[in-house]
Each structure stands twice: as structure tokens, then as C-alpha cells.
Design a protein that fits this description.
Elements (H helix, E strand, L loop, with lengths): L5 H6 L4 E6 L4 H8 L5 E5 L7 H12 L4 E5 L5 H9 L4 E4 L5 H11 L21 H11 L1 E6 L2 H5 L1 H5 L6 E4 L1 H7 L9 H16 L5 E4 L4 H9 L4 E6 H14 L7
Parallel strand pairs: 1-2, 1-8, 2-3, 3-4, 4-5, 5-6, 7-8
Helix pairs in contact: 2-3, 4-5
Length: 257
């Protein structure tokens, strides 16, 4: 059964914590699904996960009774339609920089009259045997998250968050810093000010504010919770793996070699 609680939590600005899947193997999704996250995101923008594996990962995540997002490759009709038809609970759409971008994202995810998505019969619709139930679910519970990762998105944020069908936002600090000519300088005063502006606008319009924390130290999550973020992506599969190796092998085993 598809997730029906996450949208309500987003609307109420209740804290949810998820993570990012970049390794295209269902075992990764199963291990992370057992960890107790509220949601997991299959990243189709920066990784070589193919559409067939995307669908397998979505199914594996949902088998753990948690929500499955897809961060699509771009704000594109086919990319969003493929993710939703594969059964995703929602999409995270990169580089939403304007109201026009936000409208496009909603149009590509929703059926008419809310959007312009074409109707297909795939996993989401139980291959034609569950279309009516899916149409009702799509209207009531599907989720569209606008990823704000450019200074233009910050400057146009009020229009973006007021676009009907946008359920929440998540900021991309690295690309945001790059759009300001400060790539990777996340503590630069201008980048900090831009993120603060993002948070302030989300709060004033009562829309869920999110952030992706790359490192796998939970102290970073606690800091962002204290800052008021409520849709938090906690690290990635490869960082959890790599950091554990660093801690237990590089820092310990190698000392006795």
C-alpha cells in the first residue's frame, strides 16, 4: 500500500528524516529501509541507476512501509512520468528556479485537471487493474518537492512555494553555492545568508523546509532540527558505507599493521 501519512506530516511541518540512495542494488534499499527512515530517495540525477532498477528500488523501499521518492534527472515530462508510473510516492525536482518551473513540475506529476500528465498503465496503476484507486491516491497523497538549489530559486521562492501542488521544498547547498560563484563554500557569509532567507520565507508561508546533510554524523542532523528544518535528508548510502570503513578500518585496523 502506498504511503498516505507523509503528505500530512509535510503539511503540518512535522519532522521527517530520510536518506539518499545512489547505488543501484535492491540490497542497499533493503538495508536502509530496515534502519527506520521515514522516506528514501532514489537519485536519478547524479547516478547511473537505470529505469528498471529505479522501479525495483521503489518497490523494495515501499515493502518496508516507508515512502519512496525519486529525485528525477531534471524537470522533464518523461523523467517525472517514468518515476510516478514506476510507483513513486513523490518526486523531488531539481533546479526549480521560478514559478514557471514549479508549475511544470506539478503538471508533469499530476493528471488533469490538476496537471497535464499523460495516463499510462504501469506498476503505479497495478498494470491497469488499479487505475481508479491510483487516480484517487494521486489526487490526495502524491507529493511534489521543489529543490531550491540556485540563487534564482531563492529570489523567486515566494512564488514557488505558493504554486498549487508544491508540497514542500528542499535546499541544495552545494549547487546553491555554485550559482553564487562560491562552489563548496557553504560557510561563506553570502551562502549562509541565502539559506537563512530560504528558511525565513518557508516559515512565513508555512511550507515544509528541507535540507540535505551530506556527512553521516547525526550531530549535523540535530543542528538542522534546531534550526527548524523538518524535511531532512540524512547523508547517502555511499557516505554511510565509506565513513564506517574510515572509522573502523583506516583509523583502527591500519594502526596495528
Amino acid at each position: 500500500m502506498k504511503n498516505t501519512s507523509l503528505k500530512k506530516k509535510l503539511k503540518l511541518n512535522q519532522l521527517t528524516i530520510g536518506s539518499w540512495i545512489t547505488i543501484g542494488h535492491p540490497t542497499i534499499a533493503e538495508i536502509m529501509g530496515n534502519a527506520g527512515f521515514d522516506w528514501l530517495t532514489v537519485d536519478m540525477e547524479h547516478n547511473l541507476i537505470d529505469p528498471s532498477m529505479m522501479q525495483t528500488l521503489i518497490a523494495t523501499i515501499q515493502s518496508k512501509n516507508i515512502a519512496a521518492f525519486v529525485r528525477v534527472s531534471k524537470n522533464d515530462e518523461v523523467a517525472i512520468k517514468h518515476a510516478m508510473d514506476a510507483g513513486a510516492d513523490g518526486v523531488i525536482v531539481p533546479m526549480v528556479n521560478s514559478k514557471e518551473d514549479a508549475v511544470k513540475a506539478v503538471n508533469f506529476a499530476k493528471y488533469p485537471p490538476e496537471g497535464m500528465r499523460g495516463v499510462g498503465l504501469s506498476r503505479a496503476q497495478k498494470f491497469g487493474y488499479g487505475f481508479e484507486a491510483y487516480r484517487a491516491w494521486l489526487h490526495n497523497y502524491s507529493i511534489v518537492i521543489a529543490q531550491i538549489e540556485h540563487i534564482n530559486g531563492i529570489n523567486n521562492l515566494e512564488e514557488i512555494v505558493n504554486t498549487p501542488g508544491i508540497d514542500g521544498t528542499i535546499i541544495g547547498p552545494y549547487d546553491l553555492s555554485g550559482s553564487m560563484g562560491l562552489t563548496g563554500k557553504l560557510h561563506h557569509v553570502k551562502v549562509v545568508e541565502a539559506i537563512s532567507k530560504y528558511k525565513s520565507i518557508c516559515t512565513s508561508y508555512n511550507i515544509s523546509s528541507g535540507i540535505h546533510i551530506i556527512d553521516s554524523n547525526y550531530k549535523s542532523v540535530q543542528e538542522k532540527i534546531q534550526d527548524g528544518f523538518c524535511f531532512i535528508a540524512f547523508s547517502t548510502d555511499f557516505y554511510f558505507l565509506g565513513d564506517r570503513i574510515d572509522q573502523q578500518f583506516k583509523n583502527k585496523v591500519n594502526q596495528v599493521k
